[in-house]
Amino acid sequence: MTDTARSGVAALPDFPWDSLDGARKLAAAHPEGLVDLSVGTPVDPVPAIAQQALAEAANSPGYPLTSGTAELRAAIADYLVRRWAAVGLAAEATMPVIGTKEFVAWLPTLLGLGAGDTVVVPTMAYPTYAVGALIAGCTPVPCDDLETLGDLRPGLVWLNSPSNPTGQILAGDELARRVAWARERGAVVASDECYGEFGWEADPVSVLAPDICGGSHDQLLAVHSLSKRSNLAGYRAGFIGGDQDLVTRLLAVRKHAGMIVPRPVQQAMITLLADDDHVREQRDRYLARRATLRPALERAGFRIEHSEGSIYLWATRDEPGRATIDFLAEHGILAAPGDFYGEAAERYVRIALTATDAHIASAATRL
C-alpha cells in the first residue's frame, strides 16, 4: 500500500455502528426482546408493482447502461418536474446511482476534488458526507451558517432537508440563501433530498425549484433515493438530477468505474417513480408510528427537537447521548447516539420509525 493510500485509510473514522455492540446486547436481554430503532432500514413490504417489474425484467443477460435506459432517465425527469417543480429539467440531466450512499461517498472524488479542497457539511449530519470528503483527501468543514465561513471557497457544499438525523426542514428562503452563497464561490451544491416525501409539519422543497435556484440548475445536484420512499433499500436504487453538464461529467467517470444499476432494478424504478399510491400508503404508516412513539417518549422525559420531517425522532434527555442509549437499552430499545452525527449532536439520540407497528407499540409501552 502506498503512503497516500495508507494515509487516506487512516483518516477514516471507525465504523460507528460497531460501538453499539454493548447496548445491543443489553437491549436484546430484555424479557420482551429487542426493538431496534437504530438504523433507518425499511421493514414494510416492497410494493407489489416493483416486485412484478423486477421479475418481468429478470431475463437481462447483457450489461446495463451506466446512464440508465432512456425510459428510466425520462421517468426520473418526469418525477422531479412533477413532484419537485424542477422546471426545464431534461432527461439527460439525470442519472441513476447504486443507492445514494455510494454517490455521497464518492462524489468529491468523482468531482476531482482532493488535498487542499474543502467540503462543507451540516454540523449535525449523515456521516458519509464527511467520509466522502476524507476518501478524496479533502477537509470536511461542519457549518450551518455559511456566512461565518468568510472567504472560504469550498469545492462542494452539502445541504440536507429534511435532515438526517434531525428531521429539520429548511425554509425556502434559507435554502435559497445557502444555494446563492455556494454559487457565488463556485462550489457545487449537492442537496440530499432522500427524505423529501416525509414532511410532517412543513413542506420540503427542492433546490431545483425555481424559487430556490432562480430558474437555473447550474452547479446544482439533487440527490434522491427509493430506499425510504418505496421501501427499496435492498435494491440499491437512487438517482440524481440537476446541472446537465455536471451530470455528463460524472457519468463519464462512472462509466470507467463500472458504477451501474442492474437492469431489472432500473425497470422497478421506472414503475415506482410513476406511482404515488404506494408513497401515500407508506407515509400513513410512518405517520401512525410517529403518533404512537412521540408522546410515549415525551411522557418518559424526552424532549423532541426539529423532527418536522423524515422518518426519525430527534430526542434528548439533556444528558450525554450515550447515557440515553443505555437508558433505552435497559428497556430493550436500541437507538442511534447523536455523536454518530457530529460533535454538535452529542446530547441527542436518533430514534427511527422503521419498525413494525407491533414493535413501535411495544417500545411505547415499555417507556
What labels would you give this structure?
Aspartate Aminotransferase, domain 2; four-stranded antiparallel beta sheet; 14% strand; alpha/beta; 13 helices; seven-stranded mixed beta sheet; globular; 40% helix; 367 residues; Aspartate Aminotransferase, domain 1
Total separate domains = 2
Order of helices and strands: HHEHHEHEHEEHEHEEHHHEEHEEEH
Identify the overall geometry: globular
CATH fold category name of the largest domain = Aspartate Aminotransferase, domain 2
Span from first to last CA? Answer: 50 Å
Instruction: Give the integer mean of the pLDDT values.
Output: 96
Report helical residue fraction.
Answer: 25-40%
Structural class: alpha/beta
C-alpha-based Rg, rounded: 20 Å
Q: Mind telling me the CATH class of the largest domain?
A: Alpha Beta
In terms of quaternary structure, what is this?
single chain
| Annotated CATH homologous superfamily of the largest domain | Type I PLP-dependent aspartate aminotransferase-like (Major domain)
Instruction: Characterize the biggest β-sheet.
Output: 7 strands, mixed
User: Largest beta sheet: what is the strand line-up?
Assistant: 2-8-7-6-5-3-4
Describe this entry's structure for a reader.
By secondary structure, this protein is of the alpha/beta class. The protein has 2 domains: 133 residues, Aspartate Aminotransferase, domain 1; 215 residues, Aspartate Aminotransferase, domain 2 (3-Layer(aba) Sandwich). It has 13 helices and 13 strands. The strands form 3 sheets. It has a 7-stranded mixed sheet, sandwiched between helices. It has a 4-stranded antiparallel sheet with strand order 9-10-13-12, with helices on one face. It has a two-stranded parallel sheet with strand order 1-11. It is globular, with a radius of gyration of 20 Å. It starts with a helix and ends with a helix.
